[in-house]
Amino acid sequence: MITAKKIWYFYYDGFRSMTVGRSLWVIILLKLFIFFVVMKLLFFPNILSRDYDNDDDRADAVRTNLLKKSH
Amino acid sequence: MDDLMTVVDWSRWQFALTAIYHWLFVPLTLGLSLIVAIMESLYLKTKSEKWLAATKFWMTLFGINFAIGVATGIILEFEFGTNWSNYSWFVGDIFGAPLAIEGLLAFFMESTFVAVMFFGWGKVSPKFHLASSWLTWLGASISALWILVANAWMQYPVGMEFDPAQMRNVMDNFWALFSGIAVNKYMHAVFSGWALAGVFVIGVSAWFLYKKRNTPFAIRSIKVGGWVGLIGLLLTMWTGDGSAVEVTKHQPMKLAAMEGLYHGGYSQGIVAAGIVNPSKTWNNAEDEYLFDITVPCGLSILAKHDLHAFVPGIADIVNGIDINEAGDTINTVSYAERIRLGKLSHEALRAYDIARANNDQAAMAEAEKQLRENYQFFGYGYFDSVDEAIPPVGVTFYSFRVMVILGSYFLLFFIVALFAVYKKDWLYRITWLQWIAILSVPLMWICSEAGWMVAEVGRQPWTVQDLLPTKAAISEISSGTVILTFWLFAVIFTVLLVAEVSIMLRQISKRSKGNLEIDNH
User: Fold this and answer.
1) pTM
2) Is residue B264 part of a domain?
3) What is the phi-psi region of residue B391: left when phi exceeds 0, alpha when psi lies from -120 to 50, beta otherwise?
4) Residues B123 and B204 in one domain
């Protein structure tokens, strides 16, 4: 418990005393939001996970797709 | 078909864009973390505040680069799942393991020790702080290992067996992933990061000298940056030589494209400078170069460490003259034959698919056997002509020369920088030399990116060498979304880059006005 408290204050004090780091953290958080919330959710689904329920179906889909592309 | 090619091309551009931007941040993290750790070690050894001030100054710039660059690589994994779903499934087992290890290591090592680096001054013991700085460097370097092992597997797929039921390559030998290609590629990339950081430190220090601010700090920094950069560059050259030998063995077409060589020979020369003939193809009689300055026997030495060795050109390889595992020249399978065998393997997979639908075990076993016989040429079955299997020669040729010429320039750069700070102090007071050092900083990034262009454009049209070309690896998606996200990424990454450069410049300017002989922070 004491260790957990120490770790918490280590990070808490660290963030509080930052100068350059504050604007960097704003950039990091904004970037992560754009990447993981906007881009990932809206534009970058994992197509095979989204469209198929299990690995067998995914394997079938890839097999069909690769064979279709081979004329 | 047109839309398929549009999707393939835009997806390739998108991947190239995000990878190029990602690589702007990574090498500086790899190299600057080392320089910071060395400076902090000097501080602990000498107990001199001037080294503490230097450590904190460069650590701030490291922190800015780390913060802006972190997670930019995750975009590439997004693209695997959306744009390249066939590819990511086909290689999933192989690619997944190194990337999972990378994710865990990157998260635990870097996030823990970077925090101690920045928040730990005065709160943890000096030795523990120093250990954290070194572990940050080590964590970043180990992260790069797994990414580059995965990349190397795509260039030289080994240690796996294809399972048509799962439709993926299943790893059967983890240690085979650490091939000669992987080891050289990893070391080449990491050491180039040392060289890049060395140029960065010298360039920024040269600006201090130009402004006549904190000259002793600048000279100290040039000494550390110069040695790290010089050692890094020499090791980059050594591993680059190793990479060339490995490429000759496993990707001879890439080597031929790097050289713009269509008809090889014994004691093959290397083009030091030249212009490739854009009309030249593997099967016409036009000259290879519009202009060239060739060093006799150079390519034979580079490729096989043998003055008289035979090196095949593009036409030789297409016609079936190649190099085997031992590096000997042999008659092998022509590209026309590879296409025929590749199509046979597709027929076997088709038969397997039908047999599987009918639950005909005997037919499945027979089809799998036939598939395995020609699996090594599976990817060639997607081509209609051998022209499709040849990489873009011009881009590969020029990128290789940009990398080598700038790399050679930076060897001279480090030698002059170290000579100036150790032997001839009047040298570093010459204004135009200071400007050369400052303006060399972006050149180092161009050199580094050119290296990746050689590696990645030179291996086209493959996502996985010989097994999966880009046009088969692509998902069934519309080009509209890919085009939209391409431009979104272009804007986001450009904003990040502008933010990084402007925050760095502001910090450099602000801190240069303080006293960097004592610890103010």
Assistant:
1) 0.92
2) yes
3) beta
4) yes
Longest Cα–Cα distance of chain B, Å, equals 84
Q: Looking at the structure, do residues B189 and B238 belong to the same domain, yes or no?
A: yes
Inside any domain, residue B231: yes
> Are B287 and B157 within one domain?
no
What is the C-alpha separation between B30 and B401, in angstroms, rounded?
24
User: Are residue B403 and residue B499 in the same domain, yes or no?
Assistant: yes
Nearest to B118 among A21, A28, A44 (CB): A21
User: Which structural domain, as residue segments, surrounds residue B355?
Assistant: 338-386
Enter the tokens of residue B168. Answer: 């993926």
H or E stretch covering B342: helix B335-357
Name the B residues in 490-509 with CB < 8 Å from any A CB. 492, 496, 499, 503, 507
- Beta-strand relationship, B310-311 and B168-171: unpaired
Kindly write down the DSSP assignment for every residue of B5-74, as one continuous string. HHHHHHHHHHHHHHHHHHHHHHHHHHHHHHHHHHHHHHHHHH--HHHHHHHHHHHHHHHHHHHHHTTTTH
Q: Which residues pair with B330 in a beta bridge?
A: B322
Which member of A23, A32, A49 has the closest CB to residue B71?
A32
**B139-148, B220-229, B285-294: least confidently modelled range:** B139-148
Q: What is the mean pLDDT of chain B?
A: 91
Task: Decide if B457 contacts B71 (C-beta within 8 A).
Answer: no
Domains of chain B: total: 3
Of the three residues B307, B331, B355, the one that is the final residue of a domain is B331
Nearest residue in chain B measured CA to CA from A16 = B119
Domain presence at residue B163 = yes
Q: How far apart are CA B187 and CA B238, in angstroms?
A: 9
Q: Which residues pair with residue B291 across a beta bridge?
A: B275
pLDDT at residue A26, rounded to an integer: 84
Contact status, residue B314 vs residue B282, Cβ threshold 8 Å: yes
- Range list of β-strands (E), B248-376: 265-266, 270-276, 289-295, 310-311, 321-323, 329-331
Q: How high is the pLDDT of residue B322? A: 67
User: B64–A66: do the CB atoms touch at under 8 Å?
Assistant: no
Whether residues B430 and B494 share a domain: the answer is yes
Distance, in Å, from the CA atom of A49 to the CA atom of B169, rounded to the nearest integer, reads: 18
pLDDT in tens, A21-67: 778 888 888 888 888 888 888 889 999 999 999 999 999 999 999 99
Residues B350 and B314 in one domain: no
B382 and B396 co-located in one domain? no
CA distance B471 to chain A (A): 8
| Chain A residues touching B166 at Cβ < 8 A | 55, 59
pLDDT at B2 over 60: no
Report the alpha-carbon distance of residue B486 to residue B15 in Å, rounded: 9
Domain match, B270 and B309 both? yes
Residue B233 has pLDDT above 60, yes or no: yes
CB contact B363 to A (< 8 Å): no
- Residue B68 in domain: yes
Q: How would you classify residue A60: left for phi > 0, otherwise alpha for psi between -120 and 50, otherwise beta?
A: alpha
Closest residue on chain A to B119 (Cα): A14
